[in-house]
Specification:
5 strands; 5-stranded mixed sheet; Serine Threonine Protein Phosphatase 5, Tetratricopeptide repeat; single chain; elongated; alpha/beta
């Protein structure tokens, strides 16, 4: 009778405290007591006792570990974790029904709903999440990408009962520059609902609004993290989802107003990134389709960003590659004069040379020589001129440009000599007479430097 009462008490304790080590210990003891009684009744030999005890303990430990381990995000999904502490069981029920369930519903709706795996952290785990470090640790364990954590309490204010909600959140992303990560954290802090006071008599509607707010911010922030991690397509789907959600809201709620204000910039970042990717693809493949994609992405950029430096440069390149619209390309480049950067000088030098204005072209290359230019830029500039010579052999004036480029900017004197020689040999019908004389003089100067030991052998 005593053993039966003791086992019943231990099982009851284990059921209530299963997530704690005391719960595991209680059920192990209870089951061992029961096994002892049954094995004694059956008069089992000692070795059966040992195997039975060891098996029971191992099974219970494994069962305890796996049932108490935080859930993990499904493969191929974006893990969205909600970890909320509540002051009592009644408050927990309200939060679960009115906030968490609503948040799950709004998050799973929309264009990207299927990509999310919503995870609600049980009470015994949420009680241990108190700061950012705990949150990041839980994010790692759940293999998630976004985690909201905090607590909800009931308080009386001015004689009325309120739900007081304190929220914080973390978002994961691939390694990005510290400056970018700091901006992401700052934006998160500005937009996430940090502390809310929800009247108890109006909690259902208020929790619904809080869920919509949290959903928009979460998708927006995950979109930024996805963009920073180079998942541009997913970022665009998230931004589009937020944009559509905001269209359904009226009024000038501050956070929604900020999101409406910032979304155009996020879309701009996506289109300009795709445009640059298209140009990179063209550099590698020289396929016409890449230029078509470049034009399509540039045309999606809103008018307020049309004077951005990157946009002007890309439009000048697209105008040249897509139909040799030279004057239009030059027009875009000339709008870059306010920017202290060598790239637009290189572009203008190239375009002037295409129009046979080699004097203006060399003037721009001279300006480029005053800049500290990266090896990648030097390679791209040279490759572009080599490409046009293959594409349009009658534009042999680019050998003149290459000669000056290799001499004054790249410092390859031997290649500069070869380029100037090629330019002189290709001149017909008395064209470029002045440039021919200059090229001859420069060759003498270069040859003198080489013989003086100041040139680099090929």
């Amino acid at each position: 009778m005593s053993s039966s009462w003791e086992g019943s008490s231990l099982l009851d304790l284990a059921q209530r405290q299963w997530h704690r080590p005391i719960g595991l210990l209680s059920i192990i003891i209870a089951l061992l007591v029961l096994e002892t009684y049954l094995l004694n009744t059956a008069k089992a030999p000692f070795n059966i006792f040992a195997f039975s005890y060891i098996g029971t303990i191992l099974i219970l430990i494994l069962l305890w570990y796996y049932t108490n381990r935080p859930p993990r995000t499904q493969k191929g999904k974006v893990g969205f974790v909600v970890c909320i502490q509540c002051s009592d069981e009644q408050e927990e029920k309200v939060v679960r029904e009115d906030f968490i369930r609503t948040l799950r519903g709004v998050l799973k709706a929309g264009q990207v709903g299927r990509t999310f795996h919503f995870i609600e952290i049980p009470k015994h785990v949420s009680e241990s999440i108190n700061d950012i470090d705990d949150a990041y640790s839980l994010m790692s364990k759940t293999r998630s990408h976004f985690l909201i954590f905090g607590r909800v309490r009931r308080r009386k204010l001015d004689g009325k009962e309120y739900h007081i909600i304190d929220l914080d959140g973390v978002v994961s992303h691939k390694p990005i520059p510290k400056e970018t990560s700091a901006k992401l954290s700052k934006e998160f802090a500005e937009l996430l609902p940090r502390r809310l006071q929800i009247p108890k008599e109006n909690d259902l509607l208020s929790f619904k609004f809080t869920s919509d707010w949290t959903e928009c911010v979460a998708k927006y922030i995950i979109g930024i993290a996805s963009f920073c991690s180079s998942d541009i397509d997913y970022a665009e789907r998230l931004y589009t989802d937020v944009h559509q959600k905001l269209e359904s809201f009226s009024g000038d709620f501050p956070v929604f107003a900020k999101l409406r204000e910032r979304l155009p910039k996020r879309f701009y970042e996506i289109h300009i990134s795709r445009a640059k990717a298209s140009l990179k693809q063209w550099r590698e493949t020289k396929e016409k389709q890449a230029i078509t994609q470049l034009a399509l992405n540039l045309n999606k950029i809103p008018d307020e960003y049309s004077k951005n430096y990157e946009v002007l440069l890309l439009r000048s390149v697209e105008a040249f590659l897509n139909g040799r619209r030279i004057e239009e390309a030059i027009g875009y480049v000339k709008k870059c004069k306010q920017f202290d950067d060598p790239i637009w000088h290189f572009n203008l030098a190239f375009l002037k040379a295409y129009k046979d204005d080699l004097k203006a072209s060399i003037r721009e290359y001279r300006k480029c020589a005053d800049y500290d230019i990266s090896p990648i830029t030097l390679s791209e500039v040279e490759d572009f001129m080599v490409w046009i010579l293959k594409e349009e052999p009658d534009k042999y004036q680019y050998y003149y440009c290459l000669g000056f480029f290799n001499w004054k900017i790249k410092g390859d004197l031997y290649q500069a000599l070869d380029d100037f020689k090629e330019f002189i040999n290709r001149i017909r019908d008395g064209k470029f007479a002045k440039e021919k004389r200059l090229a001859s003089d420069w060759m003498v100067e270069i040859d003198t430097k080489i013989k003086g030991g100041r040139g680099s052998p090929p």
